[in-house]
Amino acid sequence: MQRAAGFVLMVLALGMVALGLAQVGGPETARREARDEQRLQDLIGYANHLSCTRAQAQDPERFCGAMPIASDRYTKVPFDIQGNLVCATFETALDEAQVAQRFGVSFKDGCLSFDTE
Amino acid sequence: MKPADALAQFVQDGLRAGRAPAQLRAALLAEGWSAPEVDRALGAWADHGLGLPVPRPRVQVASGEAVLYGLMFVALLVVIWHLIDLGFDLISVWLPDPVRDSGGVWVNTSIRWSIAALVVTVPLFLWLNARVERAVRLDPATARAPLRRRFGALTLFLAALSLVGAAVSVVYGGLMGIVTAHFLAKTALVVVIAVLVIGYFRAYVAED
Fold first, then answer.
1. Which chain A residue's Cα is nearest to B123?
2. How far is Cα B159 from Cα A74, in angstroms, rounded to an integer?
3. Virtual CA dihedral for B174, B176, B178, B183, nearest 10 degrees?
4. What number is the ipTM of this complex?
5. Residue of A nearest to B117 (CA)
6. Distance CA A109, CA A90 (A)
7. B201 CA to chain A: closest CA distance, Å?
8. Per-residue confidence at B3, pLDDT binned at 50, 70, 90?
9. Cβ of residue B205 closer than 8 Å to a chain A Cβ
10. Of B154, B2, B140, which is closest to residue B70 (Cα–Cα)?
11. In B19-158, at which residue ranges do the beta strands (DSSP E only) sit?
12. Pseudo-torsion of CA A33, A35, A37, A40, nearest 10°?
């Protein structure tokens, strides 16, 4: 009984580790996720700044502070501004609903919409 | 009186009565005490020709044993905690709760932490457990060590608490109307792990 329970417990542990790895992927997937997370933070900072500068058109430097990073810090490709959307190319499929919930923003197809007021 | 106390008392009384250590040893072995136990009990007394056994100084607790069982208990706790945590995360991904948020972006981070903990602590636990089992094979008296019994009893106690907690959760889930596949899968995982732990560690308190 003891040996059987121990064996099943260890098989369960190894199986769960294997399933976990299959779910989250390896180190490269983790690096892609980390880069996307940073990219998203940069994009949000840039979108907020754009929103502020458009609202404070007379003296944006005074009210909005220094210009944040305006391009992808890994590929150096500038963030793409399309009307009131600012976009970046992400390496993983971000959950748009989760991004919206976490940051209180509208996010779709790699683009954030910012208020022009 | 604990078995070890009875053994010490018997040896002391026997030596006081003028019995030879070899006679006492033969009687104790015939009653099923292991040779290392008998040697330890007889070794606790010295004969200085006084007609009285003279006690030898003894170390009360084997510190190595305490470290071994302490580390094993912590390793087991970490293994069980992360098995359940990892299982819950995978269930949240594969069978999302229709009512509550699944944990979002942090699920992958949580899964990686659990994998890291299991990759380190499962081999550590297996190694410590192999050491304990080897010690029991070499000296069956080790199975009666108080620390081992306490370790087993505490583990069983925590596993039994988990089962009670799972039962309470099921009743609560039924009352709240949240008995979904997600909820049942999590409860089943806790029950399976608790039953396996009880099956394994029952021997720690049952051995005699």
1. A10
2. 49
3. -60
4. 0.77
5. A17
6. 9
7. 7
8. low
9. no
10. B154
11. 45-47, 53-55
12. -130
pLDDT in tens, B45-82: 887 777 788 888 765 556 778 888 889 889 998 999 99
pTM of the model as a whole: 0.73
Chain B hits for A95, CB-CB cut-off 8 Å, are: 104-105
Find the angle CA(A3)-CA(A7)-CA(A13) to the nearest 5 degrees.
145
Interface test with B, best of A11, A16, A103 (most B CBs within 10 A): A16
> Which residue does chain B place closest to A99, by CA atoms?
B105
End-to-end Cα distance, chain A: 70
Question: What is the DSSP annotation of B110-140?
Answer: HHHHHHHHHHHHHHHHHHHHHHHHHHHHH-G
Residue count of chain A, please give it.
Answer: 117
CA-atom Rg of chain B in angstroms: 25
Long-range contacts, B106-114 (Cβ 8 Å, 24+): B108/A23, B108/A24, B108/A30, B108/A33, B110/B85, B111/A20, B111/A23, B111/A24, B111/B86, B112/A20, B112/A24, B112/A30, B113/B82, B114/A20, B114/B82, B114/B83, B114/B85, B114/B86, B114/B89
Q: Which of residues 81-100 of B touch A (CB under 8 A)?
A: 83, 86-87, 89-90, 93
Assign B53 to helix, strand or coil. strand
Contact of A92 with A33, CB cutoff 8 Å: yes
Of residues B42, B51, B43, B6, the one with CA closest to residue B24: B42
Torsion over CA: B148, B151, B152, B153 (sign): positive
pLDDT tens track for B29-53: 999 888 888 888 888 888 777 778 8
Structure tokens at B87: 């299982």
